[in-house]
Amino acid sequence: MANPKRRHSKSRRDKRRANWKISLPDLSFCPQCKEPKLPHHVCLHCGFYNGKEVIKIKEKKEKKEKGEKKQIKEKKQVKEKKQIKEKKEIKGKKEKKADKK
Ligand SMILES: [Zn+2]
């Protein structure tokens, strides 16, 4: 039986594997909304397949949630700013007291 004389070195194996790369999947474009989608799959942007709406996609809710998150962040920032201001005021009062002594 034919047998390899030597096994391939780790270096040789790793050089071979160094050329394995991730590739983008082949994409086609949705005829409904022109967004890229996987071929033979329902369009995840508009929910259409073969000219029919197969899935109902909720877009507005996601946007609302994002908006709510932003509002919460802004509220937090305002609170933090207020706390910093209060701390500064307290420090200023302490300094004034120290000056009086
Ligand atoms: Zn689409």
Protein model, in words:
With 101 residues, this protein is mainly alpha-helical. Helix content is 49%, strand content 8%. Strands 1-2 form a two-stranded antiparallel ribbon. It has a two-stranded antiparallel sheet with strand order 3-4. Strand 3 (48-49) and strand 4 (52-53) form a beta hairpin. The radius of gyration is 31 Å and the shape is flat. The mean pLDDT is 83. Zinc ion is lined by residues 30, 32-33, 35, 43, 45-46, 48. Zinc ion binds next to loops.
Strand order, largest beta sheet: 1-2
Count the E strands: 4
Q: Radius of gyration, Cα only, in angstroms?
A: 31 Å
* Beta strand %: 5-15%
* SS class: mainly alpha
Low-confidence runs of at least 5 consecutive residues: none
Mean pLDDT: 83
The distinct ligands, each listed once, are:
zinc ion
Helices, by number, come to 2
- In angstroms, what separates the terminal alpha carbons? 101 Å
The portion of residues assigned to helices is: 40-55%
The largest sheet, given as strand count, sense and whether it forms a barrel, is:
2 strands, antiparallel
Order of helices and strands: HEEEEH
What kind of oligomer do you see?
single chain
Backbone shape: flat
Quick structural gist:
By secondary structure, this protein is mainly α. It has two helices and four strands.
Output the keywords.
49% helix, two-stranded antiparallel ribbon, binds zinc ion, two-stranded antiparallel sheet, mainly alpha, 101 residues, 4 strands
